[in-house]
């Protein structure tokens, strides 16, 4: 089964990706200022930024066959290279989404997750979330935390689906409208219950995206960094 004809993969963010990632950030968080200083973040040994990418041709069109099915494995390739080793980005790629993870003293914290506006509701955000959870687990983190706007019920539904539970409230956290932030956390990543849940969710994603959904192997850590212990 194929969910869509989008053909893309997840890899580590590179400096050349910054302009497109900033466009996605502006679309997703228009009231946020200043924007993330990705030039600095990409050198941060505690940070891991991953992007979902789609190869495009010289006219900016997606590289898909006339029948709409992407060549070379369909959209199951969205995470084809994420955990299989760092590879250089293609000559032309459209960045569809980004997720940022900080690893600090056994706690992975998702600092951002965003998808390009015209590619939302395709499940790309969910795949980026799974990629961050896998990266945190491979990095030896004990759990993963994040926060979201209290009004964002779609985000809450996704986080509930992956075993996050509410652990706190940050009152008037967002400066644009003083909305509260809800702080959520996973159970211990190494617990049997969480492993079963994540395995079930990945199986569902594989069934949805196609049989060639590969989410195995070590994450592609930057060459100038080592995973936190």
Could you explain how this protein is built, in words?
Helix content is 25%, strand content 23%. By secondary structure, it is of the alpha+beta class. The chain has one domain: Aminopeptidase (3-Layer(aba) Sandwich). It has a 7-stranded mixed sheet with strand order 1-2-3-4-5-7-6. A hairpin with a 2-residue loop joins strand 3 (93-104) and strand 4 (107-115). The termini are far apart.
Descriptive labels:
23% strand, alpha+beta, 25% helix, 7-stranded mixed sheet, Aminopeptidase
Summarize, please.
The chain is an alpha+beta fold.
Category from helices, strands and their pairing: alpha+beta
State the share of residues found in helices, binned by percent: 10-25%
* Assembly level: single chain
CATH second-level architecture? 3-Layer(aba) Sandwich
Individual helix count: 5
Span of the ends, CA to CA:
39 Å
On the 0-100 scale, what is the average pLDDT? 79
List how many beta strands DSSP finds. 7
Largest sheet, order of strands side by side?
Answer: 1-2-3-4-5-7-6
Q: What is the rounded Rg?
A: 17 Å
The third-level CATH topology is: Aminopeptidase
How would you describe the shape?
A: globular
CATH superfamily: Gcn5-related N-acetyltransferase (GNAT)
Number of structural units classed as domains: 1
Strand proportion, as a percent range, falls in 15-25%
Q: What are the segments in which pLDDT stays under 50 over at least 5 consecutive residues?
A: 64-90, 214-229
């Amino acid at each position: 089964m194929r969910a869509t004809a989008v053909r893309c993969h997840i890899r580590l963010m590179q400096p050349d990706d910054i302009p497109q990632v900033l466009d996605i950030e502006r679309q997703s968080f228009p009231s946020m200022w200043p924007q993330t200083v990705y030039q600095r973040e990409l050198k941060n040994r505690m940070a891991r930024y991953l992007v979902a990418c789609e190869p495009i041709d010289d006219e900016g069109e997606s590289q898909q066959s006339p029948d709409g099915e992407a060549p070379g494995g369909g959209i199951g390739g969205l995470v084809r290279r994420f955990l299989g080793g760092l590879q250089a980005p293609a000559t032309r790629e459209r960045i569809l989404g980004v997720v940022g993870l900080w690893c600090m003293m056994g706690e992975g914290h998702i600092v951002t997750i965003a998808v390009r506006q015209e590619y939302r509701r395709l499940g790309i955000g969910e795949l980026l979330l799974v990629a961050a959870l896998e990266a945190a687990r491979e990095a030896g983190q004990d759990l993963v935390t994040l926060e979201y706007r209290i009004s964002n019920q779609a985000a809450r539904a996704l986080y509930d689906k992956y075993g996050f539970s509410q652990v706190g409230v940050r009152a008037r956290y967002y400066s644009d409208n003083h909305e509260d932030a809800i702080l959520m956390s996973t159970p211990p990543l190494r617990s049997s219950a969480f492993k079963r849940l994540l395995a079930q969710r990945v199986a569902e994603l594989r069934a949805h995206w196609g049989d060639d959904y590969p989410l195995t192997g070590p994450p592609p850590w930057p060459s100038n960094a080592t995973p936190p212990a």
